[in-house]
Amino acid sequence: MPHSNTYKITFLVLILVLIATFFTNISLGSVSIPFKTVFGSLIGISDNYIIQNYRLPKALTAILVGSGLGISGLLMQTLFRNPLAGPFVLGISSGASLGVALVILGSGIFGGVFAAFLVFKWTIVVAASLGSFLVLLAILIVSARIRDTMAILIIGLMFGSITAAVVSVLSYFSSAELLQQYIFWGFGSLGNLSWNEVFIFFIIYSFGILLSILSIKGLNTLLLGENYAKSLGLNIKQSRFIIIIATSLLAGTITAFAGPIAFIGLAIPHITRQVFNTSNHKILLPAVFLFGAIIMLICDSIAQVPTSDYTLPINAITSLIGAPVVIWLLVRKRKMIF
Amino acid sequence: MNKTEQHIILKTESLSIGYKSKKTHSVIASNIQIELQKGELIGLVGANGIGKSTLLRTLTHMQPKLSGDVLLNEKPIANHSNLELAKVMSLVLTEPIASKNLSVFELVSLGRQPYTNWVGNLTTKDLEMVNHALNLTHIETLKHKKCFELSDGQLQKALISRALAQDTDLIILDEPTTHLDMYHKAYILKLLQKLVKETHKTILFSSHEIDLAIQLCDKMIVMTEDDVVSDSPCNLISKGTFEKLFPKDLISFDKKTGSFRVNK
Question: Which ranges does the record mark as transmembrane (chain A) (predicted)?
Fold first, then answer.
């Protein structure tokens, strides 16, 4: 498709903004570190423990989370031809929440068997991954039998309702202490990952991104609708399968490592479409990557509440900052471009 | 016309169409024998609910047949892969395209998907084909417009353009004239006739514009309760096939003018 060149400048600007927000994000925090030290420890001249072991992995996590959620949102919106779709419509986050709820809340109800494992943060990561994987597996089995993509969407929402109900029941029987622990997980967090965890996160994330890139042509064809796409030689079932796997790899790992982060997945593709006036996923995919990363870094910088010791829940910030932006964009353009 | 020398693109052999469930077969039409030849404009007419869409869906392999066979270039349609089919047959459907945010150029470019690489890059040849398709339907000036900005007539032309860009011998259109005013109905069908003459493609369309189809088509397929007949419009008129199309209480066919009149 045309006009790839006209977007070059916009892409260049976005890359510069990403670099700027990355540095800003690392420079800000409860401990004030001079910019010289920040820059020095990034390129390896000087050593700064806070930068290298706390702020840098956190900034990288923010980039992975923002871009990953944005891209899985884009994939879902195209696959379901629905502007309200996000990475979590398939019940992926509900599955993760159920897994985590079973581990945290269940440990109180079912006795100390689980409690012994709680010392490891990995338990939560595994539980969240397993939860989203199981919900996804159920959806894939259903989608192999059902032709209608809309039906899969509804079934995903139903799975979400079921898991939410189970979480409610578990919460009802849990102690206040465990409940608080679960709620804290629900706030989302970017800053708790060690380098090892960031590395594993990155590997799974890369698989998701790779599958998304392989889906570009299929996604563009799906813009015409499934019957047209089939008449253009697209293997619908295979493309749908790859797109769903890519989304769940991205959304599943992100939820596992950073908690259920609201809003980004739904909003980023819309913000991107307002700036890049195209439907071509070859342009939208990298653009969503950049916007997702930039906005997540900004949200995280705000959540740090610069010059104070407080860290606000990232989940609240993404919605507080993101929702007004989307409303403003839509009101200004008076048109939902989709 | 010297039909023996002509190349048959699509042919059915005692085809039965309808819907299959586990226990029951509901047959909509059976023993359908049609032949579509290269460079023909064929109109498919019939009353509402008679099964025009079912026939088109079966011919385009969107729905399984009940029995018989559909041969595309002398090979059963089921033996074609999706991609092979996409290079022989392109479609214009009644369903709206999923994203109206596509520009006309993007829409028409998607017709090149069967030929492009894994990421869908357009080569110089693809661009030529796209521009040629835009020229054939006279919508070059609309190419940067978004689909939601187009009128129904313009959108139909863009969809036909997309099918042309797919570079297939056969184009099948499901009711391309619905939602259009009288002028644009004639315009679109006339355009199809022109495309058949200029490109020697075979174009099959279903329509309720029987009067226009009689004037423009090389061949017509008429679906009635009893059977599916295909012949040239003149022969069909003299055989009295059009009289059987509808119940006779309201309208009747006038052989002299080749059109339907309201009973007085």
Answer: 12-35, 55-76, 88-118, 124-144, 151-173, 198-220, 241-271, 283-303, 310-331
Sequence spans of domains, chain B: 1-88+170-182+196-264, 93-167
CATH number at residue A90: 1.10.3470.10
For chain A positions 194-213, those within 8 Å of chain B (CB to CB) are: 213
Chain B CA closest to residue A222: B98
Residue B217, pLDDT > 60, answer yes
Contacts A278 to B, Cβ<8 Å: 103, 106
Q: Closest to A1 (Cβ–Cβ): which among B96, B114, B122?
A: B122
Decide if B60 contacts B52 (C-beta within 8 A): no
Interface A–B counts its CB contacts (< 8 A) at: 88
Domain that holds residue A255: 5-333
Report the complex ipTM: 0.93
Instruction: Compute the average pLDDT of residues B225-232.
Output: 92
Question: Cβ atoms within 10 A of the Cβ of A127, count?
Answer: 23
CA distance A269 to chain B (A): 14
Q: What is the DSSP letter of A271?
A: H
Task: Tell me the backbone φ, ψ of residue A35, rounded to 5 degrees.
Answer: -60, -35
B111 and chain A in contact, CB less than 8 A: yes
pLDDT in tens, B75-127: 999 999 999 999 999 999 998 888 888 999 999 999 999 999 999 999 999 99
Using CA atoms, how far residue B223 sits from A260, B30, B120, B226, B262, in Å, is 57, 11, 40, 8, 21
